[in-house]
Backbone:
């Protein structure tokens, strides 16, 4: 740091300013998760959170949201991440997370 070793590095990639629209999508996902987790259960609330956050991250990269096919793939991916996490916490670790059916599977 004293000799100025960082002078030779390239500038960081990305925009000079933040993308507030993309941030709004990610925040909407987190808020939706908190608002919906007790009504639609952990798995579906986390799936919705994933879908909204991915939309925001794609927008930040300048990519499109993918239309209906992209939305379906985001739902499937979010579900495939949230369901095993739910089962791990409830069935293996014995923690109580909100579910829809009361059986411990959804």
Residues:
């Amino acid at each position: 740091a004293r000799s100025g070793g960082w002078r030779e590095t390239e500038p960081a990639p990305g925009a000079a300013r933040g993308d507030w629209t993309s941030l709004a999508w990610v925040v909407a996902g987190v808020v939706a998760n908190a608002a919906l987790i007790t009504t639609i259960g952990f798995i579906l609330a986390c799936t919705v959170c994933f879908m909204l956050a991915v939309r925001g991250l794609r927008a930040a990269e300048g990519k499109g949201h993918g239309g209906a096919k992209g939305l379906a793939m985001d739902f499937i991916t979010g579900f495939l991440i949230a369901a095993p996490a739910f089962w791990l916490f409830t069935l293996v670790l014995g923690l109580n997370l909100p579910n829809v059916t009361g059986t411990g599977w959804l």
Observations:
- The first helix runs from residue 20 to 40.
